[in-house]
Amino acid sequence: MKKLGLGFYIALTAALLAWGFYQAIYVAPDEQTMHEVQRIFYYHVPSAMTAFLFFAISLAGSIGFLVLRRNRPEQAQVADAWAVAGAEVGVVFCTVVLITGPLWGHRVWWGGGDWGNGSWWTWDARLTTTLVLWLLYVSYLLLRRFAAGAQMQTLAAVLGVFAALDVPIVYMSTRWWRTQHPAPVFGGGPDSGIKDPAMLHAFGWNIAAWLAWGLLILALRYRLERQHQQLIARQAQAALDEI
Amino acid sequence: MDQRAILDHQFTVAAYAVTWAIQLGYLLWLGLKWRAQKRETSRTARGPR
Description:
The structure holds two protein chains of two kinds.
Chain A: H1 2-27, H2 41-68, H3 73-109, H4 125-146, H5 152-164, H6 166-176, H7 197-242
Chain B: H1 3-46
């Protein structure tokens, strides 16, 4: 039954991704000023939204671990597994954002520069805070990978909480500072929002598709982390039994 | 098709391809990690030789 449910979810995710791709490439019209390259939007923005959601899950997991670690160690391990899964999958989506954004910006911001001409990056507030966010979570993952000892999870959880503080700064950066990056699609002023229904549908389908995909790999990563924790506990028990 | 449209198309294809490469690459990495961990688990279950 569980396998059937998983199979159905994978099929649904694949269908959503295919439908989202079809909507973005074949159904949504060309934007008037940016033309075809604006279609990067349908992958770029949903990836950013999904990354934010997963960093929020990581934050909740980190706080949960810090709260539960003394009195409920087993539940603290569950929270820690969510924290690392959220951070890692969030970094994957954030990487997509940091690569697709400059590809789009290179064409639109620098007068239609081709592959060799024009800039790929600007130290704009939105771009810089997003890069800092990515670096913070990469350092979180590196800490988990290379630090050892009983304090590692606690240190990682504290870093996870501090890293998440950058998420609202990234979100608000286009409101707080004058940036080259466009204003938010929604809630960015009286002219914000998507006017064309076909564009709005393509955007909505791609949000659903990438969210479904993200949740699938998040669940996989969580399961992997729980298995890893159980393996470590078993190995520690075996080492104690040998003494 | 003018030069601008060709470049727009190339950049769009590149962005979509990079997105899929990153996501599928990560899924592959998870799969490899899963397999390695499964082996390690069965080795631990058998106990030291």
